[in-house]
Amino acid sequence: MQPPSASAALNEPPLSLLRDSSLFLDFDGTLVDLAERPDGVVVDEALHTLLQRLAERLDGRLAIVSGRSIEQIDGFLGRSLGGVAVVGSHGAEIRRAGGTIVRPERPATLEAAETAFTERFAGHDGVVIEVKSLGVAIHYRMAPEVEVEARALVEAFARHEGLEVQHGKMMTELRMAGHDKGTAIASLAEQGPFLGHAPVFVGDDLTDEPGFVFCAHHGGSGILIGAPRATAAAFRLADVASFRRWLEAAA
């Protein structure tokens, strides 16, 4: 594996990048701006229309690949996803277009972790406990002073077999091990309509790096959204608004 590149030197992606490609899109920080609370993101009508156009333009070679659960993604984008595959829980659950959700059973340890996290930060208005199908996250964007404690609490539960820590932007999460966005994109890429088309993955966070790596090693590329940092992505755009404008032009 080649070391990540410094994204400061990365160019904007050419509009021709989507020609005969498969497109995999992260949600938070990529299609929508991050919010103080995970339930506070705003999905505008233009995004619904854009996703429908993209699915048609790419002949169905479009997928949402998120750390959120599929149920959460459906709550935000459901009416736009009739012909779109969705990956949730950092790759642990997959729904191919028009299919059923394939996911492992939720470990009992996650229930215990949810209780412990909730009790520890009860009454702390700046901390949000987000419960997912196959994970539980502590968001501290509004309370950065708890970062060290939140990470230590998650890491303590991650010692249980089959669970691991996933740190992100102003959050830390306990989730099932053995899956990531790269493994999920690999699974989708093995079958139609994605088979035989160069994979392009767009994301903003460290959780998206496995997806960038997979694409780079399989004839495709990654697009990083946000500030420059070390990354396996080949291209970069400054923010959600810039990416949305690029997508509109590409679609």
Helicity, as a percent range:
25-40%
Level-2 CATH architecture of the largest domain: 3-Layer(aba) Sandwich
Give the overall silhouette: globular
Number of separate strands: 14
Query: How much is the radius of gyration in Å?
Result: 18 Å
Report the end-to-end length measured between terminal Cα atoms. Answer: 32 Å
How many distinct helices?
7
- What's the CATH H-level homologous superfamily of the largest domain? HAD superfamily/HAD-like
Could you list some keywords that capture this structure?
single chain, 251 residues, alpha/beta, Rossmann fold, Alpha-Beta Plaits, eight-stranded mixed sheet, four-stranded antiparallel sheet, 7 helices, 29% helix, globular
Topology:
Elements: E1 5-6, E2 21-25, H1 45-57, E3 62-65, H2 70-77, E4 85-88, E5 93-95, E6 101-102, H3 108-120, E7 128-132, E8 135-139, H4 147-157, E9 163-168, E10 171-176, H5 181-189, E11 198-203, H6 209-217, E12 221-225, E13 230-231, E14 235-237, H7 240-250
Describe this structure in words.
With 251 residues, this protein is α/β, with parallel strands linked by helices. It has 2 domains: 12-103 and 179-250, Rossmann fold (3-Layer(aba) Sandwich); 108-176, Alpha-Beta Plaits. Helices cover 29% and strands 23% of the residues. An 8-stranded mixed sheet has the order 6-5-4-3-2-11-12-14, sandwiched between helices. Strands 7-8-10-9 form a 4-stranded antiparallel sheet, with helices on one face. Helix 5 packs parallel to helix 6 (209-217). It starts with a strand and ends with a helix.
